[in-house]
Amino acid sequence: MASLKFSVSVDTYDSNKFHFSASPSFPIINSFARVKPINLSRLDAESWDIPDSNPVAENIKTSCSKDSGGLESSNYRNDIWRRFQGVKRVNRKDPNSKLRSARIDNGPEEKIYVKHFDGELDMNEYGMVSELSVERCNAILKDLERSSDSKTMRFFEWMRGNGKLKGNVGAYNLALRVLGRRGDWDAAETMIQEMSGDSNCQVDFRVYNTLIYACYKQGHVELGTKWLRLMMENGVQPNVATFGMLMSLYQKGWNVAEAEFAFSQMRSFGITCQSAYSAMITVYTRMNLYDKAEEVIDFIQEDKVTLNLENWLVLLNAYSQQGKLQEAERVLLSMQNSGFSPNIVAYNMLITGYGKSSNMDAAQSIFRNLRSVGLEPDESTYRSMIEGWGRAENYKEAEWYYHELKGLGFKPNSSNLYTMIHLQAKYADEEDAARTLDDMEKMGCQYSSVLGTLLQAYERAGRIDRVPLILKGSFYEHVLVNQTSCSILVMTYVKHCLVDDAIKVLQEKHWKDIIFEDNLYHLVICSCKELGHLENAVKIYDQMPIKKPNLHIMCTMIDIYSTLGRFSEAENLYLELKSSEISLDMIAFSIVVRMYVKSGSLKDACSVLETMDEQKNIVPDIYLFRDMLRIYQQCGMLDKLRDLYYRILKSGVTWDAEMYNCVINCCSRALPVDELSRLFDEMLSRGFSPNTITFNVMLDVYGKSRLFTKARKVLWLARKRGLVDAISYNTIIASYGQSKDIKKMLSTVQEMQFNGFSVSLEVYNCLLDSYGKEGQLESFRNVLRRMKESSCASDHYTYNIMINIYGEQGWIEEVANVLTELKESGLRPDLCSYNTLIKAYGIAGMVEDAVVLVKEMRENGIQPDRITYTNLINALRKNDEFLEAVKWSLWMKQMGL
After folding, report:
1. pLDDT tens digits, residue range 69-80?
2. How far apart are alpha carbons 536 and 528 in whole angstroms?
3. CA–CA separation, 181 vs 215, rounded Å?
4. Which residues, including other chains, have CB under 8 Å from residue 329's CB and lie 6 or more apart?
5. What's the rounded Cα separation, in Å, for the pair 308 and 45?
6. Is the pTM value of this prediction over 0.70?
7. How far is CA 145 from CA 127, 207, 238, 325, 505, in A?
8. Which of 208, 332, 452, 799 could in theory staple to 231 by disulfide, Cβ–Cβ 3.0 to 4.6 A?
9. pLDDT tens digit string along 243-258?
10. Would you say 388 and 363 are in contact if contact means Cβ atoms under 8 Å apart?
């Protein structure tokens, strides 16, 4: 880091040369309230001793050396000086006269008067104007440049046409000044080329400085850099004013890269511009690049720069901003030792630095000792003390300085006001905060900004519930009038569950904008939903004014009611929308469909989908397509599934992993195995990973189609990805069982156990069913024994298999034992059990018992199906009960079975 060992000669302090610019965003900004900003008058003064150092300076010298006749030379000089400093030009034209004369005195021999009207410039009225000397033409052009850009350029073209521009750098400079004001940079570049070409002018830094000055005034950073580069490319060496203007331009825009380039070029040319060093340090300090700022401080010593007051203040600010207060105090001491009087700006910088470092004891000490060095605290001093105590969270001290500031007739800045609000949110009552709001209002702060700061402060303090007590009077009236402020306040209240206060604001608002109001209500309700405050959303909706239904609000409320399980209210909103003239969009249909799915009303969900299909302009998105697939699958609507699948293919929707999984899972029974296989392979080829359910579905599809090679491949792939579960093995074992391949079934059971899965009840049932149907009753009994040893409880399917196998053998006693065991297990016979028993009784010739079972089914609330009656009729026929068989057959037809 740079250390302060300045052994430099210091300029004699001149208050007229004291100019300092600070960043608007620096906390120290107010410390510079009494210091003039950097302007170009000082920059030119630095190069005053250089001949023709600046076009404006040259004009001033010229105008001072000549008698301007009708225009007083002092006034003319002051007017140019104002233009150089950016002051608006004064129009000296008599408002009551349309004619103005400029008297050009060229000596005792001839006096030419050039008359120009506001609209036209007529040179031919004055005789042999083509014989005017170059000096006279330049004087005319200079006068025109002060009053009219268009006339200046017309006269400049006249001069070109009459050969008055050969070697005439002054005329070109005036024309370039006009082009710079106009922003016609292409024309300016062309004119410079013309100067060094046809006009045979010596292009020096004055030409480029004219354009750079225009860029400085207009804030064109990139163009300023462009002219500097072009200047160097053409072999023209910049001067002090060049770099002064450019560095001031870069400082205003905080352009680090451009400033670094210009600064390095300045040093490479051996040029010393005091303001450039200040600007570079200020830019680095503003961007928190303190190490680089200290490098520039080292350059100041290395380049032996004579420090002026601005330089000292910039050094002091750089150290103060980064909290190096000891170095800052050494800078202040060196500054005073160099002959500069004590300066309140410097002490304000130190106070700000100590405040940022939370060393308010030191800041307080400096404040108390100001009078001892002959200084009085100014407005910035008090402002800095308020900010410092604010950072220290000391409301009492900050309040004292705040009242002192106002008592002395000073005004707090916006930062002071925001600091006080933040402190009052934590440590003060509502009355103090209300007074600060009044001060903000008097200062002209924007209401929405003040309200945002107030809410932010009380949110951080955890006291947002105090805000309704603070907002009153004219400030609250503005909130009610202004839509933006009203929205900010309502959203904050809703965020913190102050629903009653939010409703009060909405009811008391003074603005009337139906569209904005609907959007605000929708936003508030959505916020409640996202925050999980669903009851608050309902409360706000119930307080809404009665008006035409709003699609977005009502759809959001349908979703909220569905989440709360209040399906009747959700359905009522849908029916209200349906009966209105509002057309539902895709999102609305999606919400309604999901509402019915949540309520378990799949039939109503299908009805909504039919209504949606009637609107030809509705194109479902990928999420609604998936919902439709799941609904049709659960309803067993295979035709709908098939049609929907091909509709999805034609829709052009982009498929993702979830879409592939959903289609394969839902359409496994609706699509051919080849199409499912194609989909599965496409999914894998696109890099999507099937989930476990998808793998199991494909195992089931391939197993039922007896495509065991593909099934084994799917099982291997699932195992490789770690997505195999017990259902995967159950599925393929069941497939082997249905194909009566007991050998592969047993090997798969062993593989299942080897991979860490226990033999499940489903596997035992498959083994029982396969052994029983193959007549391997010994193996059948072994499986039953293993089930009991492993404490695997039987289910309905197990008992039904046993009843079926024993019944096929005619073992009625065993059937009766199974039935008894079924009842003792706490289970009751289901439809499949009764159907199996009827079949078994028919085989055993117990026809009357079979008929009794039908009556028992009805008594137990089980409705006989087609299989029930078929088994009963077959039992009657086998036992020669043909007449009874015919009767039951007729009954079956009457039942529509």
Report:
1. 333 333 333 332
2. 6
3. 9
4. 350
5. 13
6. no
7. 23, 16, 25, 51, 60
8. 208
9. 999 999 999 988 999 9
10. yes
